[in-house]
Each structure stands twice: as C-alpha cells, then as structure tokens.
Amino acid sequence: MDAALVLFAQQGIPNTTLRMIAEQVGLTPAMAHYHFKSREQLIDALAEERLLPICIRIDETLDAEDDPPMAVISRMVERLLEAMAECPWWASLWVREILSEGGHLTERVHTRLGGAGRRKWAKRVAAWQRQGLMNADVEADLVFITIMGLTLLPLAAGWNRSEPAARDRLATHVMTLLGRGLF
Q1: Residue 36: what pLDDT?
Q2: Residue 116 reports pLDDT greater than 80
Q3: Angle (nearest 5°) at CA 71 between 70 and 76
C-alpha cells in the first residue's frame, strides 16, 4: 500500500498499474493480484485504511465547540502539517486525486465521510460570522478548501519540504494570511 500511495501521488492513479506497484516492491504481478484482486480493490483499501484516518483527524479540529476561530484554524493547519510529516505523499495525492475534478479518490473519500468536513466547516464559519468573530465577507463554504489549499499546495509543489524549519515557516505564513483576511 505504501508503494501504491507514492506512485499514485507521483504519477496519478490512472497512470499507475498494479504491475508497476508490484514491481516497485519486488513482487510479481500475480502476487499483487493475490493480495488485491484488482487495482480498484487496492484503491478502496487505501481510501479506507490510509486516507480516512487522516481526514478524520483533520475533521476533528472542529470538535472543541468553544475554542476561538484562530485556535481551531491553527489546529487544522497543524494537523495538515503533521499529516504531511507522517505521510509525505499526502499533499500531492490530495491535490491530484481528491481536490481535482474527476480525481479517482474524490468520490471514495467523500462517500465515506459523507461530505461532513466541508459542510461542518461551513456551518461553523457561518456561526462565527453571526457572532461577529469572523469577517462577514468571507464565503463560509470556501474556508475549508482555502485552508487546505494554502497549506497543501506549496507542499505538493515541493516547496522546501526537506528544510527542517519549513513546516513552522509554512504554518506562520498560512496563519498570517488567514488571520488578516478572516478576522
């Protein structure tokens, strides 16, 4: 599964065969088919076992109802960066196969999550706006995707991934942009 995730992030799901994945880990295609009857079965297993836990962890940032908006947003950015540290393929795979229209993982992830993440964020942002805690000119339903984009796009593009302080610098950058625009 690790090899599949790396190849999917590098090449895209449509361009990666089960044979390529098997060769990457030193297996024969027959062995790969023994473990996963098809590439689709492998993709489903990856969505369930690898992607959903990350998505749920990110979604849990909204669980603390009374936290101020900047604390919640900061926690989400931190969770995204933690996911990248643990799973370097996450940003590229997210941009290529979840965010992009027609991405091969979009439907699988959204179906399993029930679309909760974006809707949940939009409701919370709208509540913050009604309370006067967040800029009323911000589109509530775009805040989640904006945070994801500001955090993951630089990493998917390869921005300073190997630099030790890059994670802290990116978090500061994202929070500065969001803090000035959202509040």
Answers
A1: 86
A2: no
A3: 95
